[in-house]
């Protein structure tokens, strides 16, 4: 797959009287055409600033941002206008014009892009249908719920048929049920319209339901990047583990281990569960072959984007040599930690 977006050495230093903030620190990152890419991190980590460098709402202090191979830093005002037609954006607080109808909110970017009245009418009707707001064309934003407002924001962002959609905390102002509806809408925009999406959130739950790949930001730097399943099942950086832990309650914390050690005197292991261990009954087969019994003492298996991930922690019972051989063979096929 080709890179739709590529950032190389992107640094952003804000000047301020209080000394200035290094919002982005040497970011290297690429987003492939057609994928959903997640950016996650705590408040102030630099997510919004990073997102805004992609449509040149922020200019990096140094480094390069390429969109479809074009350096956005070197564009004239006219070229920038055209770039922004290619890149839609949705915001946490929706960013609607409150005095304009739903129709006008969606039609405005089309008018600015030079669409004809008839084409605008047809396109707005099609968009309202797509986002599930048929019949609301003449409502005002204040008459809509938060979820409906975000649907308008999304319809407006994709009106010009962009190839990229930037979503900045698009669900953070919404309740869990509405969040689920907006997540589903964003997924259908990606799958049905083929739009590449970069989604910023501080919630792993939202990122895990949307993103194919993800970068974790901390203090302006990317501390870890990877496939969403790998990040959930095997977080490497302490910041990632902290974001994953409350969501994926299957991995053990140090405190869990301490408690479990006091409760289970036998040998203990944790096994990362992924597709291979779900489709092949390896655990029970090896246990039977080596005459080892196990008790599951913590963990679980969940599914993200139709693929399983998780961890099981086991207390092993059997003769020392048998347990050794069981662990050795299991380790050849699965990721095993003894503790
Ligand atoms: N226009 C600005 N001027 C000065 N500092 C800024 C500006 N915009 C952002 N910053 C600073 O840059 C850092 C990164 O901010 P950013 O908003 O990108 O983080 P974030 O991860 O999106 O956080 P949040 O989720 O709270 O929005 C913060 O320290 C912030 O205070």
TrEMBL record:
InterPro entries registered for this protein in UniProt: AAA+_ATPase, ABC_transporter-like_ATP-bd, ABC_transporter-like_CS, ACT-like_dom_sf, MetN_ABC, MetN_ABC_transporter-like, NIL_domain, P-loop_NTPase
Source organism (scientific name): Agrococcus citreus
The record ties this protein, via PROSITE patterns, to: ABC_TRANSPORTER_1, ABC_TRANSPORTER_2
Tell me which UniProt keywords the record has, alphabetically: Amino-acid transport, ATP-binding, Cell membrane, Membrane, Nucleotide-binding, Translocase, Transport
Q: What is the lineage of its organism?
A: Bacteria, Bacillati, Actinomycetota, Actinomycetes, Micrococcales
At the top level, the lineage of the source is Bacteria
SUPFAM superfamilies in alphabetical order: ACT-like, P-loop containing nucleoside triphosphate hydrolases
Q: Mind listing the GO molecular function terms for this protein?
A: ATP binding
Report the protein name in the record.
Answer: Methionine ABC transporter ATP-binding protein
The family database entries (Gene3D superfamilies) matched by this protein are listed as: 3.30.70.260, P-loop containing nucleotide triphosphate hydrolases
Span of domain ABC transporter: 5-244
Which Pfam family name is an example for this entry?
ABC_tran
């Amino acid at each position: 797959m080709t890179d739709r977006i590529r950032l190389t050495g992107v640094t952003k230093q804000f000047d301020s009287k209080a000394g200035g903030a290094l919002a982005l620190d040497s970011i290297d990152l690429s987003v492939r055409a057609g994928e959903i890419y997640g950016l996650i991190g705590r408040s102030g980590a630099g997510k919004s600033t990073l997102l805004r460098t992609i449509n040149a709402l922020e200019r990096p202090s140094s480094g390069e941002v390429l969109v479809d191979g074009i350096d956005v830093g070197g564009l004239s005002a006219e070229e920038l206008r055209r770039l922004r037609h290619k890149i839609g954006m949705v915001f946490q607080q929706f960013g609607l014009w409150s005095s304009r109808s739903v129709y006008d909110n969606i039609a405005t970017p089309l008018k600015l892009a030079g669409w004809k009245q008839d084409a605008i009418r047809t396109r707005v009707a099609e968009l309202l249908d797509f986002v599930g707001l048929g019949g609301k064309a003449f409502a005002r934003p204040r008459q809509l719920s938060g979820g409906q407002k975000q649907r308008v924001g999304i319809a407006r962002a994709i009106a010009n048929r962009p190839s990229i959609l930037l979503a900045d905390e698009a669900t953070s102002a919404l309740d869990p049920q509405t969040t689920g509806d907006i997540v589903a809408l964003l997924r259908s925009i990606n799958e049905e319209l083929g739009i590449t999406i970069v989604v910023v959130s501080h919630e792993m739950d939202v990122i895990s339901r949307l993103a194919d790949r993800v970068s974790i930001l901390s203090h302006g730097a990317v501390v870890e990047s990877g496939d969403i399943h790998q990040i959930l099942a095997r977080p490497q950086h302490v910041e990632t583990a902290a974001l994953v832990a409350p969501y994926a309650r299957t991995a053990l914390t140090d405190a869990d281990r301490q408690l479990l050690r006091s409760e289970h005197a036998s040998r203990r292991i944790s096994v990362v569960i992924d597709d291979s261990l779900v489709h092949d009954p390896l655990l029970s087969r090896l246990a039977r072959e080596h005459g080892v019994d196990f008790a599951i003492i913590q963990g679980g298996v969940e599914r993200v984007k139709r693929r399983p991930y998780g961890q099981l922690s086991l207390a092993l019972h059997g003769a020392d040599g048998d347990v050794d051989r069981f662990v050795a063979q299991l380790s050849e096929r699965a990721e095993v930690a003894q503790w």
